[in-house]
Structure formats: structure tokens, C-alpha cells
Amino acid sequence: MSKKITISVVALLVAVVFAFPTYWMVATALKPSQLLLSSGYDLVPTAVTGRHFADAVAKPNFLTYVRNSLVVTLGAVLCALVAGLLAAVPLARLRFRGRRGFLLLLLVAQMAPFEALLIPMYLMMRDLDLLNRLPSLVLVYFATTLPFTAWTLRGFILGLPADLEEAAMVDGCGRWGAFRRVTLPLLGPGLVATSVFGFITAWNEFLYALVFMQDENRFTLPVWLSSFQSVFGTDWGGTMAASTLFTVPVLIFFLVVQRNLVSGMTAGAVKG
Amino acid sequence: MTATENPPIVTPVPARPAVARRHRRPGVAALPYLLLAPATLTLLVLLGWPVLSVLLTSFRRLDLRELVQGKVVWVGLDNYRAVLGDPTFWTVTLRTLAFTAACVIATVVGGLAVAVLMRHVGRAVRTVLQVSLVLAWAMPFLAATTVFQWMFDQNYGILDKTLVRLGLTSFAGHSWFTTGFSTLAVIVTLITWQGIPFVAFTLFAGMLGVPAEQYEAAAIDGASGWQTFRAVTWPAVRPLVTLVTFLSLLWDFKVFPQVWAMREGGPDGGSTTLAVLQYVKGIAGSHFGVAAAVAVLMILVLVGLTAQNLRLMLRAQEYR
């Protein structure tokens, strides 16, 4: 019995370690400035203020950064969903020559080290006159999330019984009608899960955003946050408030897909 | 053995979906290729071409002048000679390998430990643990990096304050970013902290698949906790451990955001990894050819590190 208690205590300590940085971020964001730059030791804020959040939002261009991040992220996710779904259907349902080759392409693409392709991507975007413009990031994030999206959606489609679609076709639906009325609605959770993972990848991306975007009003949130020292000075309250605002959307999405967290991340790697 | 004992079992073999058979008209045969066209085209242009291009660029001299004039100057292996002849490159490569090893080992061992912990605690404690793991997992890299910078801050950071409280007064005003080693240690901590949740959840899911009878049998046989782990848990999760090790290798070797945002590869290049080197040479220094050579070498090292897994994975996945 005492062993059980020891294990529980250890587990709770581990939980504290893992939750602490998130807690500290929010606690710092809520503390008045004079408490932050002091030698005092207060793990729980003794006073609370919303000033830092107001400051962060009021920073020049803040809303522009949010908008930029949303545009590139949603643009990439939408493209990846459409192209990924179109590719997933034949790969899951149809037999045709070269199918295995396409699967292999997806699998390899999924493991491609995009970070090592920075230079050719930069040169390509320069040639296309897309540097310093948001579509360049949409394209790169589209390519990064597409293999995963297609592969995972294929897995979801494989999980749906083909008989359903066939039954609909027997009942007079066309191929497209059967897909739209039967498969697509059942695919809802899969579409949500994959788009959330795509969203998180693109929302997080830093290297390409740092390199491609030169004007300040084209920055995305990660690039802006990385320059916080010039923006905020030693204003840790403002920095933590900005970080909190940047984290919240991801946290919400993580909660949305919590059931699929593991299966989604390993979908391509464990089994088809 | 009589015939009645073993009636022939007729298994319906749905080798091919019936839907595929129905369409033999021309035009429909093109359907799969039409559907695959957007994805294939995207991957060829935005992945295939860059892979080819990075290789070609690594054999060119491409500095700002050539870039602006649009000149193509082939220099053979000059870039590779320059990179491989530079002692900094070797330092950075060894540093990157050590850094990757530290991240991967800490993440996998830590993740395994947390997974075992999850299996042994009650439902309520497990939920608390899982929620806090998700908090760590979900935090965007850049937000996490800024929080770590704040926690490790020299003057007002909570870590130094806590250490002083615990009696380690020498940590008053201690700076964690004066040496490359110490800076990298902070980054390894950060990456491990963010990486453990995924590993822990994956391995925990694997442990749930072990039939309870096996644990009961082990308990009846009087096996100790360690023996049970060795005989029951470990064989069940070993393939998953291989998998998460492979994935962590893939992610940690080329990680850029946390390393760059923490101290931009400093102090004095002391926390520069290969990903940072590529950025510094190529984008900051405008030596695109040299940076391309660094990128190619990076890919080669990565393929070398993961060759075993890549082979196994391709073999397992191909046929389905």
C-alpha cells in the first residue's frame, strides 16, 4: 500500500515538472511588473493584472502578425486537405498501376527533412518573386503537411467499410454521390484530426518564416516572438502574455483531437 | 481423420474491391491518376525539385554577386572541400551528434519511465499526469523557448532563485548562457521536456495492449517489478521504442527553432548545430553554394543514422 502511495507522489511530482513552464508563463503574464523584476520569491502571484495582455495586444502590428499566421496556416491546411483527400481516395479504394509507387512517394515525403531544403526553397521563391510574400509560406507549409495529411486520410478511409459505398451505388447513387453522401460524412473526424495536426505544424513553423519574410509587417507570430527582446526589452510580463496568446489556439486544438493524439502522430509510421 | 471432421473452409477472399472491377471503361481508368495529380505535382515541384536543386547548388559558387547577376558558376567539389576543410564544421558536426544523442536518449528513457508510471497509478493521478503532459506537448516551440529563457534568466529567473533558496547560494545571479555547453544543456532540457509526452503516450498505448493475464501470471510467479518489466512489458513495447527513437532522431537532429531562438547559436558559436550552420552560412552569409553543401552533408548524416530504420520501414509499408 505504501508503495502505491510513493508511486502516486512521484507521478504527481512529474506532473508538476511538466505543467510548471505553462503555469509559469500564465502566472508571469498576470503578475504586475514590479513583482517580476524583484528578488522576491512568489510562486503564486500575490497580485493580478491584465495589463500585460493589453500591452501585448497593443504592440504595433500585433493583429497583423495574428492575421499573417492565420492566413499562411489556414491556407496551407486547406490546400493540404483538398489535395490530400483527392489522393487518399484512390490510394485507399482503387487498384491501379503504380499505386505502390505513389504510396512509397508519400512515405518518403513524410520523412523528408524540409529544414535541409532551405536554400533551394529560398532560391525558388526568389525566382518566383514570392520572397517576403505570404504565398511562399503557404506553399512550403502545404508541401510539408501534405504527405502526412494524405497518408492519414488514407488510413481513415481504409477504416471505413467499402460495402457502405457499394450499397449506396446499388441503391442508385453514382460513384461521386456515394462518396459525397456516405464516405465524406463518415470521414468528418478524420478530416478534423488531420487538419488540426496540419494547423499545429504550420502554426509552429519558424525557419522558413524567419528566412522568407523580411518586412516586419509580414512576420508571423513565431518570428515576432523570437524578436521579443528588441520588442519588449526586459518586459517579461509582456513576453509571457504574448506567448500565452500564441499558445491558446494550439491548446484548444490539442483538446479537440486528444483522442487521436497518438494514433495520429504515428499513423504513418506504425502501420498503414 | 475423416472428411466430416474437417469440412473445407471456404473463405471469401475480397482480393480486390468490387468497385474497382466495375469500371473498365476508358476514361475511368485515368481516374486514379487524375485524383493523384494535384498531390503528386505538389510533391514533385516543392519537394522533388528542391532535393535535386540542393544537390546541384552544392556544386556551384553562388554568393550574392552570382545570385544578383544570375550567373551559373560550376565549381565542382570546391564547396565540399571548403566545408570539410573547415575545422568548425567538424566541431559543429560532432556537437550536433552529441546534442542529438543527448536529446534522443533523454527523451526515450524519460518517456518510457513516465509511461511505466502512468500504468502504475490510479485513474485520478493518471489524469492529472496526462493533462500536464499535454500542456508541455502543446506549447508552441517559440513560446516554450521564451518561457525557458525567462525561467533560466540570470537576474530574476525562478530557477536560480529556487536553487539559492535550497541553499546553493553560488547560483545567485548565475548565468546559464555563458558557455556553449551550458546553453545546449538548457536546450536539451527544453527539447526533452517537450518530447517526452509524445513518447510517453505512445509507449503507454502500447502497454495497454498487453493482456492483463500476463501481469497476473508474473505476479503469481512472484516476479519483482523489474523482472515483470523485463519479461512482460519490455517485449511488448520494444517495437514502439524503436519507432519513437527513430522519430526522435529524425526530429532532433535537424531542430532549428529552439536552438536559434535561445541564443542564436551563441555564445560565440558555442551552441551552433548543423541546422544553424546552414542558416548562418546560407542566409546570413549569402554563401548559398556552401550552405547547400552543408545541407547535403546533413541529409547524408541523417540517412546514415536512420538507415536501418528506413530500410525496415520501407519494407514493412510497401506492401499493402
From TrEMBL, chain A:
Chief localisation class: membrane
What residue ranges carry the coiled-coil annotation? none
* GO CC terms in record: plasma membrane
In its keyword annotation, does this UniProt entry include Transmembrane helix?
Answer: yes
One GO BP annotation here?
A: transmembrane transport
Domain ABC transmembrane type-1: start-end pairs = 66-257
Q: Which UniProt keywords apply?
A: Cell membrane, Membrane, Transmembrane, Transmembrane helix, Transport
Q: Which Gene3D superfamilies match?
A: MetI-like
Where does the record say this protein resides?
Answer: Cell membrane
Cross-referenced InterPro entries, in alphabetical order? Answer: BP-dep_ABC_trans_perm, MetI-like, MetI-like_sf
- Claim: Transmembrane helix is one of the keywords in the record: yes
Transmembrane domains' residue ranges: 70-91, 103-125, 137-161, 182-203, 236-257
Membrane topology listed for this record: Multi-pass membrane protein
Q: Which family does it belong to?
A: Belongs to the binding-protein-dependent transport system permease family.
- Protein name per UniProt: Sugar ABC transporter permease
UniProtKB/TrEMBL annotation, chain B:
- Biological processes annotated in GO: transmembrane transport
Q: Where is the ABC transmembrane type-1 domain?
A: 93-309
Q: Where is the signal peptide?
A: none
Primary location class: membrane
- Kindly give the membrane topology term recorded for this protein: Multi-pass membrane protein
Give TM segment ranges. Answer: 31-52, 97-117, 129-152, 184-210, 231-251, 288-307
Origin: domain of life: Bacteria
Q: Which Pfam families match?
A: BPD_transp_1
Q: What is this protein called?
A: Sugar ABC transporter permease
The species this protein belongs to is Gandjariella thermophila
